Amino acid sequence: MNVGVPTEIKPDEYRVALTPAGVRELVDAGHLVVVQSGAGEGSAIADADYVAQGARIAPDAATVFAESAMILGVKEPQPEEVELLEPRHTLFTYLHLAADRPLTEGLVASGATCVAYETVEDDRGRLPLLAPMSEVAGKIATQAGAFMLEKPLGGRGILLGGVPGVAAANVMIIGGGVVGMNAAFIAIGMEATVSVYDRNIDRLRELDIALAGRADTCFASTLHIEERLPEADLVIGAVLVHGARAPHVVTRQQLGVMKRNAVLVDVSIDQGGCFETSRPTTHSDPTYEVDGITHYCVTNMPGAVPITSTSALTNATLPYVLHLAEVGVGEAARTNPGLAKGVNVAGGAVTYGPVAEATGLPYVPLEEGLGAAA
Known about the structure:
There is one protein chain. The chain is an alpha/beta fold. The chain has 14 helices and 15 strands. α6 (131-148) packs across α7. The radius of gyration is 21 Å and the shape is globular. The two termini are 16 Å apart.
């Protein structure tokens, strides 16, 4: 199969979908890899590094799409990329379609088969292709929140870890999954006072062990969250419902009980955001203020550390890329039920239930969609 790697064009996105090590694995397996010139520059990977492992360099995205059957990406395709998709293409990237009906409609109209990293599951129901970026995003969330609490950035002017004789900041993490756990690791390491909220008691037990009792683990009822918001200096939203739009766990009205210039970091923003007042921001312009509360809602937080993120992403996606390249998306989905859950769009239809429900578009069973795609 011809596998294409275009340059990411979302603002402030520096990651690339494949490392030279990934190229080597694909080439050794008999596949052809076409990489757009400059695709790896943001991750400190030169074109020559790809060529050395057997890739061919293409001058532009149009050439990559024209010469490839499978397109690998990092972020959701931008409008000009959607226009390059054809029914013969398999697109494998992060899509986050539940919060983006226009993109979903564009992908449906393209006829391409679109597989979302974030809804692929393993045999235990976990999200193996979302996990590495969730780990990065969780750690960045705390770092960014600590920075935004500084007075020149519009924050309260409080040091996350405090100093002897001065209390540490209170960090409230809503959502105890991979993002929340990693956010807690960093907040604890910075010596903040940390509370992690989740609705799954078994998960709270796991977190209590993983965090060695160094953070409070709390049941995430609406009342408990509301009662603790007045104490919080930094609130990190890390709520995830597989493939669906994130629920709001902090309302605009509740901002009124918070400390002025406290910081909200919404890691759920790709799925619509878990704070009612959230809207997407970029690394170049990461924050805005609502009712005296600073909001940090960057949609591609891991893109800020592309050398780390690109390698972590390829490590996770490569086995799936090799499988798709070897047997095609239809056979791969048939033999791997977890990968099948990643197929969000096929045959000109939405084939993933939560996306159809969130966008209001018709749902078609995967077998029917893949049949149409074939």
